[in-house]
Structures are given as structure tokens and as C-alpha cells.
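ugh ok fine here u go
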Amino acid sequence: MKKFASALALVAGVLSFPESPFAQQMPQHMHGMAEAKPQPAMGGFLLSGVPMTREGSGTSWLPDSSPIAAFHLAPGAWQIMVHGSAFVRFTSQDVGNAGVRGDSKLDGPSMIMFSAGRPVGASGRFMFRTMVSLDPFVEGGAGYPLLFQSGETWQGAELVDRQHPHDLFGELAVSYSRTIGKDVEAFLYLGYPGEPALGPPAFLHRASAASDPDAPLGHHWQDSTHIAFGVVTAGARIGDVKIDGSVFTGREPNEERYGFDRPHLDSWSGRISWNPDANWSLQVSHGFLRGPEAVAPDIDVRRTTASAIHNVPLGNGKNLASSLVWGWNRDSEDRNTHAFLLESSLDWGRQAVYSRFEVVQKTGHDLGIEPLEDRAFWINALTLGTARNLSPLDPIGLHLGVQITVSAVPQALRFEYGRWPVSISVYLRFSPGQRAAAMEHAGHADPLAPPAGVR
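structure:
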């Protein structure tokens, strides 16, 4: 423990030493909220006319006031940001053995994102972004146990009651945007892999889901296209409205989580996003996915989503973030299934409490129950959790958390799952320590803008 503490102290010293570029670019209010002062607005990585906190995964939007936990640099004309999180977690699904589907595992879901952007000429902007995950090394091909989860494959069989690992590279993308009029911008985004204009920001990037290590049960109804091997998105922003459309590879990533799948650009999507004020972000989207599942390549899916994301900075380091998401899959065999999600996270100081409530339709086929494969069942799951930041070092977050999930199982599935299976997770989460909201005043000040006098 002494060696571990010494190592953390060394990292903190590097990040906070006055001559360190990290320390130079961290605004004063990230070290003490009471010292916050309005700063000039700083544009995002993809679009120069919006604050960077608006930009979610791919080309999606979050509320402007969304908190951000990141390390930030500004060498010359560049903006560089690194953020993400890594869990060390023990999970026990159906801890009371109400059914026969439970499992336990010591694992570690993770995500790290690197973004870099700079102006190009008088009215252009270039962005490069990559997202990586250690899931292929830590989780293995079968991923981690998660009751009622479905989607993707391992060793040629569909994964059931397990969340698949994310690929080593979840995003390698570039974009170019250009101001073409007063408060009007056009952009082009290319990803291999990347995220098309379909759905809300992926759960990995929502503040409302930051403390929850589990993927939503409705992931493959709402935001599973966040890793698509081949994406071309074009769009425009007009004030606080964005319209974007994509062509992309509809097939979900294959079992080789370290490599790059062949792009096909055989699917399409369109999305309208609107941020009516600093605390809201709304979107509706629709897309066609060509043969998304490897085990059923001839079955296509039409996906429709809508979401409302809300964020309220409460002052003194406190924040309330919530997301309401709906997804609807209609496949080419005329099966219709829906997924609803409501999640919230209340952060104050070093403590956070959070919840996620899901109502999801899963077929017997989704759950690997052949006699019921053509029937759809409503699954209800409620997660409650809390986490506390134990780190003594300002730039680094070390969160100790625990959560419990209770599921309500329909009568026809109780022979497999029981009536009220209960799952528990205990974890440590590592992340950048700062959490600051972008919108401290009506002038759209960016929390990551350099303090006065720093260039």
C-alpha cells in the first residue's frame, strides 16, 4: 500500500506541478469551485460554435452543462483532452440463486478516449479522436455476466445473460467542420471504427451512467452502433439544432476484438438533435441496419430512438444528470420490440448516488429459450448504487462503489430466472478527478478554458 500511495503521489505531483502542461491548462475552479470565474467560450472538437461539453460520442450531443472529468492540454493551436474510466469490479448475478442463470466474475470494464482538435484557416476545424478499451484483455471473449443481456456472439453462439466485451479500438475518427454563415456550420465525420448518427450518446459517455459499470439491457435497441467499422456522417448545425445522416456498416463487430472488420457501408441513419437550453439535449433518430447479427445475417433491422438528457449543476461541485431513452427495433421478420431506460446520478462532493430503471422487451430467442423463441416478454430491472471518491489526490478519482439490481421476471420465464433475482456489484473506479460544469453563466464559459494569462 505504501508503494501504491507513493506512485499516486508522484502522478499527482506531475499533474499539479506549476510547470506541468496539465497544471497550466487546468482552470483554477477545477481545484476549488469557489474560485470559479467566467472565461471566454472555447469551442468543441467537432464544431467550433458549441462548447466542448455538448459533444458526446460520435457526432451526438449532450447538455452544455454536462460535467466533464478529463485531463486537458492546449499546445499551440491544438486542444487535447483525455478522459475515461476503468473499473475493478466483482459482480454476482442472481446472488440468491433464485434461478439457474446466475454467474459471478471479477472483471474490469474500461474506456479511454483521446480527442484532439485545431482550427483550419479562418473558418474550418479539424478533429481526430480515438477510443480504446482493455475489455478484450480483461473480460475475454465471453464478456461479463449480466442477467437478461443479449447481443453479439462468442465461439459462434449468441451471448445470453452476458455483456459482450467492447473492441480494443472503439473509435478511430477524423472530422472537418466549416462555418458557412451566422451560427451555421457544416461537418463531415469519418470513422473506422466510428459511431453513426443513430441514438443518444453511448452509455459510456453519459454522466447519468458514469458510476454504473454495467451496460444497459436495452443497449442493442438504443446505442449499440457506437462501434461500427466504417462510418461516413455529414451534417449541419443551425443554431442549437443539428441534423446529421450516416452511411455505415450494419454488422456488429465480430469476435476478433483486436482487429478491424471489413467495412461495407450497407446501412443508413438520420438524426435531429436540439439543445433548447444549457441543461437539455433532445434527439430523435431512425436507421436501417443490414444484417446486424452474425448468426442471422439475412435479418435486417429498422431502429428508431428518442432521448431526453437533462443536467442540472447545483453549485459547489454538485450535479444531477438524468437520461430518458427509448429504442424500437423492427426486424425483417416483422418482430417489434421496445426498450425504455431512465437513469440518474446525483453527485455532491465526494459522494454519488445513482439509479437505472429499465423496461425491455426480450424474446425467447434473445434469452436462448427455444420453446419460447417467438414470444416477447417484458423485463423490468431496477439498479440502485452509491460511490465515494476515496482519492486524496485532486487530479485522480478513486471511487469505491456498490450497487444492487432487482429484476421482475414474467411468469413464463421464472423456471429459468426465478421471480425476483437480485444481483450485486462492488467496485473501484479510476477516472480523472475533476468534475466541472461548462455553463457557469450565460456566456457559455468552458470549464477547460485556460485561466487568464495562460496560453
